[in-house]
Design a protein that fits this description.
With about 350 residues, the protein is of the alpha/beta class. It is about 40% helix and about 20% strand. It has two domains: about 220 residues, 3-Layer(aba) Sandwich (D-Maltodextrin-Binding Protein, domain 2), CATH 3.40.190; about 100 residues, Periplasmic binding protein-like II (D-Maltodextrin-Binding Protein, domain 2), CATH 3.40.190.10. The protein has 14 helices and twelve strands.
């Protein structure tokens, strides 16, 4: 909460007041998860998340009271600038619950890390930016700029282009920028006009240049090409799972938990998830106030960008039991392009933590 001192006093009071009211009201709309500490003592829930959109999704969790779940648990949280730093803390036993890219969760599991996937918290933030509306055939003969050769954005875009009937490197060329900051700057300066970017850089670029727009929503394109790989759930839903439509995108970001914490403190995990879902509801109910609270926590984004980007951040909660088929399809597609990107194989059933609704 110390970071909130950076907001002028009058505004800080309004923002915090609205936010607290939102959390209280939303809390009253759902049944509190029953929790029990060890010998009546408050149990720490050590949460690690990544700076950027993932931390934004958890900002209401991080900004809320330290005690939660009938005060049987208390939150200890850290926001990390890179996945490597977060992974090192997970493997050293300093983190109980974390948000990581879903394919990284698979890699860790396949390397025998004692982790399970509790649910999906993000369904993709990748967009093809261009100076005019286009479809896949419009890429023929052009150069697309992207980031992270061999990483998920690159693999995913290649897989989608291939599914659309194009051959990357033949029908169109790929060039790689040093990072998303450099690529965004080149787009704003007019040196590039066609690039794959994640949020929040999409919002920053389109706000700075009226000539650029999200020309292809890669989440929607994923459903278009790979939704059919999901088996019907028997309920008549379109490639659905337990009543949820697969049009939400692909399971990009996962909430993982150590097996020991899941076994010893299921109520603590349930209370954390409950608080996270209330935070998502707060964004929906009062996006301006909640975005301001998130920005005050120095998560790498200002309030205006957060609020503008909210429709494209695709923050969600999908329990592991519902997400399993989609996760397996997603990891399978990545594995076809690069098996090492998921740790060599799609994880077994025990990777998915059931009962984490």
């Amino acid at each position: 909460m110390d970071n909130l001192t950076q907001i002028p006093g009058s505004n800080r009071g309004v923002i915090l007041g609205v936010f607290i009211v939102l959390i209280v009201v939303l809390a009253g709309c759902s049944e509190a998860a029953p929790t029990t500490g060890t010998n009546g003592e408050s149990v720490p829930v050590r949460l690690g998340t990544l700076r950027g959109p993932t931390a934004v999704a958890f900002a209401p969790v991080l900004a809320g009271p330290g005690e939660f779940g009938s005060e049987s648990y208390h939150l200890q949280s850290d926001v990390f600038s890179t996945p490597d730093l977060l992974v090192s803390q997970i493997l050293s036993g300093n983190i109980d619950v974390a948000t990581v890219p879903t394919n990284l969760a698979s890699v860790l599991y396949n390397r025998e890390a004692e982790l399970q996937l509790a649910g999906i918290v993000g369904t993709g933030v990748l967009y093809l930016i261009a100076d005019a509306p286009l479809d896949w055939d419009d890429l023929r003969g052009r150069t697309v700029y992207t980031i992270a050769r061999g990483a998920t954005p690159d693999i995913l875009f290649r897989a989608l282009a291939t599914a659309a009937g194009l051959v990357p490197g033949v029908d169109f060329q790929l060039e790689y920028a040093a990072d998303q900051v450099e690529l965004a700057q080149s787009l704003i300066a007019g040196r590039r006009t066609l690039a794959v970017l994640p949020e929040p850089f999409v919002t920053r670029v389109t706000a700075a240049s009226s000539e650029l727009q999200p020309a292809l929503n890669l989440q929607r394109e994923w459903t278009r090409f790979f939704g059919s790989e999901l088996s019907d759930d028997g309920l008549g839903n379109e490639a659905g799972l337990s009543g949820r439509a697969s049009a939400r995108g692909y399971p990009m970001t996962a909430l993982v938990v150590t097996k020991s914490f899941a076994n010893e403190h299921p109520a603590g995990l349930a209370a954390l998830i409950d608080r996270y879902k209330k935070g998502l509801a707060a964004y929906a109910a009062e996006p301006e106030a909640t975005s301001a609270v998130a920005a005050a926590m120095e998560l790498g984004l200002d309030a205006e960008t957060i609020q503008a980007a909210l429709p494209r951040l695709n923050m969600t909660w999908i329990p592991a039991a519902e997400a399993r088929s989609e996760v397996e399809v997603f990891l399978g597609v990545l594995a076809r392009e690069n098996p090492a990107s998921i740790g060599g194989r799609v994880p077994e059933a025990e990777f998915f933590l059931y009962g984490s609704e």
